[in-house]
Design brief:
A hairpin with a 2-residue loop joins strand 1 and strand 2. The protein contains 5 helices and 5 strands. The longest helix is centred in the C-terminal third of the chain and has 17 residues. GO terms for molecular function: 2 iron, 2 sulfur cluster binding; metal ion binding; oxidoreductase activity, acting on the aldehyde or oxo group of donors. This is Probable oxidoreductase.
Length: 188
């Protein structure tokens, strides 16, 4: 009886000009062979069928493609997928676990969307924005940067969310939804 082959198996060799990468997206590892010039947005949409992040402008100007990378908001159309190996990527599909996240519920309750095209990017951006706020990072409208606590005001929310455009103009509902979802945490 021949002995089993115990030599370690080499990783598959990607085709010439391709890169073999491992991305952790929404808690799941994905091994991909891609062109190293491929944006994270194209990997998400075209290789993994995660269509929540939208290709709005493909220039980083609209925010429709916003995702979270290690909890920070990132424009996936401007990020090369190969640069994000080993980092935790969260798309709108990974926000809820079992039931809608309270921010998603707030968007519904406060009419934070109309056509819905920008909504996944708006929600991911709002989650990253709130983390920035919680970490005490000032914005362009922060009055007293030496203050122990930044006020979670409409002006702060609007400034921090200004990179996410809504063609339908649902900004009032978006701001109300963000307040509704996070005001309790700010009060703590």
């Amino acid at each position: 009886m021949p002995s089993p082959d115990r030599t370690p198996k080499a990783a598959p060799i990607p085709p010439a000009g391709s890169a073999l990468i491992l991305l952790k997206i929404n808690g799941v590892d994905h091994s991909l062979s891609i062109d190293p010039r491929t944006s994270l947005l194209d990997v998400l949409r075209e290789h993994l069928s995660l269509t929540g992040p939208k290709k709005g402008c493909n220039q980083g100007a609209c925010g429709a493609c916003t995702v979270l990378v290690d909890g920070q908001r990132v424009l996936s159309c401007l990020s090369l997928a190969v640069q994000l190996e080993g980092r935790e990527i969260t798309t709108i599909e990974g926000i809820a676990s079992g039931e809608l996240h309270r921010l998603q519920v707030a968007f519904i309750e406060h009419d934070g969307f109309q056509c819905g095209y920008c909504t996944p990017g708006q929600i991911c951006s709002a989650m990253g924005m709130f983390q920035e706020f919680q970490n005490g990072l000032p914005s362009a409208v922060t009055g007293d940067m030496a203050a122990a606590r930044i006020e979670f005001s409409d002006a702060e929310i609007k400034e921090r969310m200004s990179g996410n455009l809504c063609r339908c103009g649902a900004y009032v509902g978006i701001c109300e939804a963000i307040h509704s979802a996070f005001d309790r945490e700010v009060a703590k």
